[in-house]
């Protein structure tokens, strides 16, 4: 009986310490690619051999198709100067894009970048991702909204938490092997999130990817893309001169270039 009581107390104490048991990871750099240092990256996805990238800032927001190997922009359209472009996701040959404060999103034909429609949503727009069936949307809070891709109507919300602590400022999203990866704005960390209940399953530390000189000219980490067929994971940031293919590794291992 005493052993059972002790086990219950130990389990309660573990739950009472937010993040105490959340695994920590770092990364190994597999390959380094060129990235436009003028791109204020807000959304990034890999699809059929190419990167699709949404960039921000009023008067400078674009939607791009980018050649991975060279960083060359193959196709591009500019948003109206009224909009600050945010996250994007590619699903069913459509590109979905958010804007920051204007509560307006856009849907484009993937092949031509022709605007098909616009849509409205409440609150701020930050990041987008999809799992092939539904779209995930972040708004800078600790919640992720789930949308029906056909109607773009919200179906539920996921409250993201590390232990009992909500994780605020969720930004760019990517769906990776059954988990939602989310940049946490102003940090060099990515949260690995369970889409079922919002638990943070692990933290990935990406500090040290850029040199000190590169960091002086760059902004924050923001951009995750996953090649599901090839099992490749890519990250970059706002105004970063490089895009990195990475492998997630135990926290004891150092970053290698």
CATH topology: Neuraminidase
Domains, number: 1
- Regarding CATH, which class? Mainly Beta
| Helix segment tally | 2
Share in helix:
under 10%
- Category by helix and strand content: mainly beta
Task: Label the overall shape.
Answer: globular
Q: How does this model look, in words?
A:
The protein is mainly β and 257 residues long. It has one domain (23-250): Neuraminidase. 8% of the residues lie in helices and 50% in strands. The protein has helices at residues 2-15, 212-217; strands at 24-34, 41-47, 50-55, 62-66, 73-78, 85-91, 94-99, 104-109, 115-120, 127-130, 135-138, 143-147, 154-159, 161-162, 165-166, 170-176, 179-184, 189-193, 200-205, 221-227, 232-237, 242-250. The strands form five sheets. It has an eight-stranded mixed beta sheet with strand order 16-17-18-19-1-22-21-20, with no helix packed on it. A four-stranded antiparallel beta sheet has the order 2-3-4-5, with no helix packed on it. A four-stranded antiparallel beta sheet has the order 6-7-8-9, with no helix packed on it. The longest helix is centred in the first third of the chain and has 14 residues, at 2-15. 37% of the residues are buried. The model is unreliable at 1-19 (pLDDT under 50).
Brief account:
This protein is mainly beta and 257 residues long. The protein has helices at 2-15, 212-217, and strands at residues 24-34, 41-47, 50-55, 62-66, 73-78, 85-91, 94-99, 104-109, 115-120, 127-130, 135-138, 143-147, 154-159, 161-162, 165-166, 170-176, 179-184, 189-193, 200-205, 221-227, 232-237, 242-250.
